[in-house]
Specification:
Layout (H helix, E strand, L loop, with lengths): L1 H10 L1 E4 L5 H17 L17 H7 L2 H11 L3 E11 L7 E4 L7 E2 L4 E6 L10 E3 L11 E3 L9 E3 L9 E2 L7 E4 L5 E3 L8 E10 L3 E2 L10 E4 L28
Antiparallel strand pairs: 1-10, 2-12, 2-14, 3-11, 4-13, 5-10, 5-12, 6-9, 6-11, 7-8
């Protein structure tokens, strides 16, 4: 994995193909539909981390050893979840994510964190795949400015000009994972195609990174592997067939 880490240090991202099996990807797609049915007040791009504390499937998914093994490559063996978020862009009307750096938003000290972007659907330029600027993570963390001229997921954009000609498209198949640095400049276009584009962002931290948010434990802070480190964590939710999304292995343990 040293070559992957070297490329990541240079480019700020890496891609892993076929990480999850089709059965788990299908369960994940079902989970998105279940969440949308339960939360009709939320746009499908906004199925965020505050929903996690009472969601056994979501915690099971981000705890998958195949994902944790990738995270360990970049942040070491002591791993916690900081946040996770489905960004599901519906056909024809999916909102863009304007250019930004994740590190501009997050209450973490130090800013040692890695994002795994799990493709639930095929992700292409036509349906609004992630675009990022290789090497931009080696620059400064820029400020953000409001942008409500178009409906968009964040309501903000980076407050500097971005050379869009340098951006690369993250074309992914279901089950693929793209990994990126918290300081890389990235975004995605609107989905004007007839095909949904859904991905799950998973923000893993080494347990030596402190979550400094006022709310403790943070709604999506879960200890996943190794030593627990400096944070307090949510208890893992116990599966209740009346309240929770059904999945393989639910209720075991």
């Amino acid at each position: 994995m040293s070559d992957v880490r070297d490329r990541f240090a240079t480019d700020g991202y890496a891609v892993f193909r076929g990480v999850l099996d089709p059965e788990l990807v299908a369960e994940t797609a079902g989970h998105v539909a279940w969440l949308q049915e339960r939360h009709p007040d939320l746009r499908p791009e906004q199925l965020g981390h505050t929903l996690m504390r009472d969601d056994p499937f979501w915690v099971r998914l981000v705890s998958d050893d195949r994902l944790l093994d990738i995270a360990e490559t970049f942040i070491g063996p002591d791993i916690a979840l900081f946040a996770s978020h489905y960004i599901s862009k519906p056909p024809f009307s999916g909102q863009p994510v304007l250019w930004h750096q994740d590190a501009a938003f997050w209450p973490l000290e130090p800013m040692r964190v890695v994002t795994l972007w799990l493709a639930v659907d095929h992700s292409t330029p036509e349906n609004g795949c992630v675009r990022l600027v290789p090497g931009s993570h080696r620059g400064e963390i820029a400020g953000m400015r409001a942008n409500t001229a178009v409906d968009n997921v964040l309501g903000e954009e980076i407050a500097v000009e971005v050379d869009e000609s340098a951006a690369v498209d993250m074309v992914l198949a279901p089950g693929d994972v793209e990994v990126h640095h918290p300081a890389i400049v990235h975004g995605s276009a609107a989905n004007t195609s007839p095909h949904r584009r859904c991905g799950l962002t998973i923000r893993y931290i080494p347990t030596s990174t402190r979550i400094t948010a006022e709310e403790q434990p943070f709604p999506s802070a879960f200890h996943l592997r190794g030593e627990p480190g400096v944070n307090v964590y949510q208890p893992r939710p116990r599966f209740d067939p009346v309240r929770h999304y059904p999945f393989r292995g639910a209720g075991r343990g």
